[in-house]
Design goal:
five-stranded antiparallel beta sheet, 9 strands, 113 residues, mainly beta
Length: 113
């Protein structure tokens, strides 16, 4: 059994970059917490494997292929591999991202730099 918390040890970065933390790894996924302050962005990018995004707290504008939609607390979306998407926080938020164990956290970190 593995255990992690989406709300323990949260640090909102004061610069324009979201905070990305790997909370745990399973046989198939890496469970990642993304913490964004209001106004922070993640530029357009795509994942090489399918992903699942859960809005744990707050709201973001989520763009898929240029189409924008509001995601709020409790919303969950799944994206297939290689779908261009971007995020813009409209409030302080906590996002849970599930990525393939084959994906690299360095790829996620490059999106915020």
């Amino acid at each position: 059994m593995k255990k992690a918390s989406l709300v323990d040890n949260i640090t909102y970065k004061k610069n324009l970059k979201p905070a990305v933390t790997v909370l745990l790894k399973t046989a198939n996924t890496k469970e990642v917490r993304i913490v964004m302050k209001k106004g922070q962005l993640m530029k357009e990018h795509q994942a090489p494997f399918p992903i699942i995004i859960e809005m744990f707290e707050g709201e973001i504008v989520f763009g898929i292929n240029g189409n924008k939609q509001l995601l709020k607390r409790g919303d969950i979306i799944a994206l297939d591999a290689n779908i261009p998407h971007d995020l813009s926080s409209t409030s302080d938020c906590i996002i849970r991202l599930s990525i393939s164990i084959l994906d690299k956290i360095e790829r996620v970190n490059k999106v915020i730099q």
